[in-house]
């Protein structure tokens, strides 16, 4: 079943079945732009969301980013809060206490870092400039780009409209040598 442009969205939804998955960079920017950040699990708002996630939902910041398709590189702190830098000794002590009690560091790296946020993956597809199957050097480059973004062989084959073995012949070799992120 070849992937047509209209069904690219379906690729995102299959990979992340949750309701609130950020699909565009603009949505992500808007989410972080306010005085506070809303918790998408319970709706409450916080200046530093990660402390709340750990304390109330037993979820690490990485797990939260993975679940809602937020980029790995963004801290879960509102823009206003980061700017005011009200990170007092008392607050730091409280954060340490929460981290200890919730075994935060045990959980911190559970989510696979290789998974890029869905909106980021969709941008990668748009930037490829997809055309019908072309078994050239530029085809190789497209496979490589998607591979580096964390797509599976099957997803790459669907996006580029080629057989899975055409993709895996290349990725098998790259996987052996490690991705270039
Ligand atoms: Zn919450």
The biggest sheet amounts to: 2 strands, antiparallel
| Alpha-carbon distance between the two ends | 29 Å
Determine and state the CATH class of the largest domain: Mainly Alpha
- Element pattern in H and E: HHEEHHHHHHHHH
Structural class estimated from helices and strands: mainly alpha
* The CATH homologous superfamily of the largest domain: ROS/MUCR transcriptional regulator protein
Average pLDDT over all residues: 72
Small molecules in complex = zinc ion
Task: Report a brief summary of the structure.
This protein is an all-alpha fold and 181 residues long. The protein has helices spanning 8-15, 25-33, 49-57, 61-68, 79-84, 89-101, 104-107, 118-128, 137-148, 153-160, 164-177; strands at residues 37-38, 45-46.
Characterise the protein shown here:
The relative contact order is 0.13. The chain is elongated, with a radius of gyration of 19 Å. The chain has helices at 8-15, 25-33, 49-57, 61-68, 79-84, 89-101, 104-107, 118-128, 137-148, 153-160, 164-177; strands at residues 37-38, 45-46. The chain folds into 2 domains: 18-107, Orthogonal Bundle (Arc Repressor Mutant, subunit A), CATH 1.10.10; 129-177. By secondary structure, the protein is mostly helical. It has 11 helices and 2 strands. Strands 1-2 form a two-stranded antiparallel sheet. Helix 9 packs across helix 10 and helix 10 packs across helix 11 (164-177). Bound molecules: zinc ion (ZN). Zinc ion is lined by residues 39, 41-42, 44, 52, 56-57. Zinc ion binds at residues 39, 41-42, 44, 52, 56-57.
